Amino acid sequence: MSKNWPLWEVFVRSKNGLEHRHFGSLRAADAEMAMENARDVYTRRSEGVSIWVVESNNITASNPENNGELFEPAADKVYRHPTFYDLPDEVKHM
Amino acid sequence: MNKDLYNYIIGIADNSLILGQRLGELCGHGPSLETDIAGTNISLDLFGQVRSYFQYAAQVSGDENATEDTLAFLRIEREYKNVLLVEQPNTDFAYTIVRQFYFDAFHLLFLKALETSKDETLAAIAKKSIKEVSYHWRFSSDWVRRLGDGTEESHTRVLEAVNELWMYTDELFHQTEADKAMIAQGIGVETLALKETYYKMIGDVLEEATLPIPESKYWHKGGKQGIHTEHMGYILSDMQYMQRTYPNMEW
Amino acid sequence: MSDKEVKNLEDLFDARIARDEKIEPKDWMPEKYRKTHIRQISQHAHSEIVGMLPEGNWISRAPSLRRKVALLAKVQDEAGHGLYLYSACETLGVSREELYEQLHSGKAKYSSIFNYPTVTWADMGAIGWLVDGAAIINQVPLCSTSYGPYARAMIRVCKEESFHQRQGFEIMLKLSNGSQEQKDMAQDALNRWWWPSLMMLGPTDAESVHTAQSMKWKLKRKTNDELRQQFIDQTVPQAELLGLTIPDPDLKWNEETGHYDFGEIDWDEFWQVVKGHGPSNKKRMKDRVGAWERGEWVRDAAMAHAKKKEERKNQTKKAV
């Protein structure tokens, strides 16, 4: 067993209506402590109304080496964007 | 001035003052950065409460020269009315946590009762402080569980702190003349009514933490009368250093 | 990978930075980029947490409740900033424990200024005003540095630090407007902290080994000497406002350059302190190592408890 406290990622909702955003990370022995530490470390100046913590190990991240196959194929699908379509100027709001 | 009310406020405030001071000593020396930050947060909450109480006490005192700072820094030792528990030293993290744990349980029950005080200012301070102290209680009781049901070493250490500080818990419920007068007027908290719940709260957590509840019935008291342990003089010489060395100056 | 391929990758990498693109943790990066960042970010983190000690020295003696809470909050912020920076550093594949180990063994450096003792209350003012002032000058450009996690940590740090310098200046202002004893205390603090603050901005450009590379990676946007000049130019009028005298007989406004000329910095003293022989180096390390060692059983207990809880949870699941 590693004796060091594992790393956790902290996500904070700044106010209702906004999404949780990644705020940073911290060390904690368990989820309860991670939650308490997140409160003490990342919301000292009333930065949040809701906190998520997740142990960093549990995050699966995409690899930048695969960025080509993952993200570039979307680049030429311009028909997914409204500007792809020609409309007469008379149509003002659409 | 309303001397009983004044003394009553001072009694409450001094607990937060001295405990806040003790926690402040630890800033920068915690077992981890996260725990350090948490301890300082508790200290800051307590000092925030102290300022509200002292500002009110200064007003009640009728002395126009009284301020939150004269009350915090310019009394003699016998005039500080905090319980002995809060002045006990930061022997190690176990002592720090158990001191906090014993105090938080009382503090939380006390404030919940004070919230219904006939004195509106005290009720308002209590209302705001309850939220802070609920968190303190959560923090300290979680740590008692961790240390008690952690490693053999942590169990031994926290058990020692639980036993050594136990004798200071009874004083939390003692009543001074001012306390009695305030209770009679519906301003003060009837502390005796809190006692059973308090020991139940403490006992439940200790049980979860696999720690035996101390059986000793030898209690130490004196703080509420201004008769302190020998630690207190050193706390004050530290805390009062500037105000005593450079009297009548603004900072 | 052949040397030529690496060279090619490095050119692409440098081009990305030149285009103001950010580098993120899993991106390919030259080994030297990674090492340089670990060194700089961890030094920065160490400076924050060692920096807690000289100010922490006055928390219990702060002269008023208002000052006490401000100081506590400030020192606490430094713990937070250390934490943000260690976290940024960890994204480069080195753990906080390893970084502590480097600090405790003396292998890693931290800002030398924290090796001076805080002997009077006015030192809290001087540190906030001068040391945080110099730190801000160093830090603001880092908010747009090339390594994403570092830049994000710095944005948070800078936002939170905005009160630190004001806190210090306010202390100085109060002292300067106070009794003769208070004025003397303020002047004495300025005398002791002025030169170390100038040194804090780093060795002169001629002596500085890392500058060119760091500029390219946006770890640095201005040279040490430029930063120092900026600090002096902005601080001299503030000292005048306080009615305090900067302890440098050669300090004078230069019409031609539009900057202040200043006297010779005692670089021997600087290197002596860097090498571990400053007035408080040993005390600072003893405090840091002591806190870490005294905390070991606490951290172990928390881990052991977490493991027990996890096991109990799994057993309950199995039973169901």
- Write out the strand line-up for the largest beta sheet of chain A, numbering strands in chain order: 2-1-3
What string, H for helix and E for strand, traces the elements of chain B in order?
A: HHHHHHHHHHH
Query: Approximately how much helix is present in the residues of chain B?
Result: 55-70%
Low-confidence spans of chain B? none
Considering residues with a beta carbon less than 8 A from a beta carbon on another chain, report the largest interface and each chain's count: B-C, 47 and 47 residues
State the shape of chain A.
elongated
What does the largest sheet of chain A look like?
3 strands, antiparallel
N-to-C order of helices and strands of chain A: EEHEH
At CATH level 2, the architecture of chain B is Up-down Bundle
Oligomer: heterotrimer
CATH superfamily of chain B: Ferritin, core subunit, four-helix bundle
* CATH homology superfamily of chain A: Phenylacetic acid degradation B
CATH class of chain A: Alpha Beta
How many beta-strand segments of chain B?
Answer: 0
Mean pLDDT of chain A: 91
Low-confidence stretches of chain A: none
Helix tally of chain A equals: 2
Question: What can you tell me about this protein's structure?
Answer:
The complex is a heterotrimer of chains A (94), B (251) and C (320). By secondary structure, chain A is α+β, with helices and mostly antiparallel strands. Chain A has helices at residues 31-42, 67-71, and strands at 7-13, 20-27, 50-55. In chain A, a hairpin with a 6-residue loop joins strand 1 and strand 2 (20-27). With 251 residues, chain B is mostly helical. Chain B has one domain (3-212, 220-245): Ferritin (Up-down Bundle), CATH 1.20.1260. Chain B has eleven helices and no strands. Helices cover 68% and strands 2% of the residues of chain C. Chain C contains 13 helices and two strands. Chain C starts with a helix and ends with a helix. The interface between B and C is large, with 47 and 47 residues.
